[in-house]
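step: validate -> pass
step: tokenize input -> pass
step: predict -> running
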Amino acid sequence: MIIRDLDFFISDARPEEPVKVKAFDVKARMGLTPSSLPGLNLALNPYMGCEHGCLYCFAPDVVKRPRETWSSEVGYRSNLPVLLNHELRTKRGVIGVGTVTDPYQPLEKMLLLTRKCLMEISRHDNPISILTKSDLVTRDLELICSTARPEIGITVTTTDEMLAAKLEPGAPSPRRRFEALSQVVKANIEAYAMIGPVLPFLEDRDLTLLLEAIKATGCTRVMVDRLRLRPGLEQALLESKAVRTTSCLTDHAHMGGQARFVREECIRLGLRFETAF
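step: predict -> pass
step: emit ->
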């Protein structure tokens, strides 16, 4: 089912500005690393850094990379397919693809690195769980279907195109992500929408619109994650003009109320509610 109800989207305008990215090859010593994330045994991250440049991203702090160059200098692990060819002979379990950085960020369109990794995985029986903000994942749906028990999650945080452009400047628009989610469902792949994070400055109506847009794709599963504060986040949000005040970022009672509201709306709409991590 393709979304055609434009009422879900507050604005369809999104600035398309070319972003200069310095890409460099990084030789990985290991392809699959252990993962402690729920439901995952192994992690695969073809890229180091992420062109999406989401203001709320906590990954740079986790891997101790400078935030200033996180989205402008991106490494790609070109030797991953070769490593996977050897490691998959002995490593078993569910592989999380994109646990730190997006496996379908813009560089992937040219490098096909994630696709090459999936080709190696498809020769084995490891289940995969892909998480992305990009509609580029639809390019590989046929290949993904050939893997064991695949799952795809697509992150959506708002239906407001202009807000998304400020918060997630290098990511595809919400409209494109909803279209991609619809295609994943149509391909009979286990799908979920990741609301990660739940933005504390959204009103109840905004959250309802978001959940209704998810339901319209045919997806019946919603996973939510909380906003993690990081140094400089408040200033970055103010400078982006995405918000006028950041007082809600530390209002835990408000954020708890949001989570309850999302859960209740999921029940009303017949969506399965899950919490992430």
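step: describe -> The chain is about 35% helix and 15% strand.
step: cleanup -> pass
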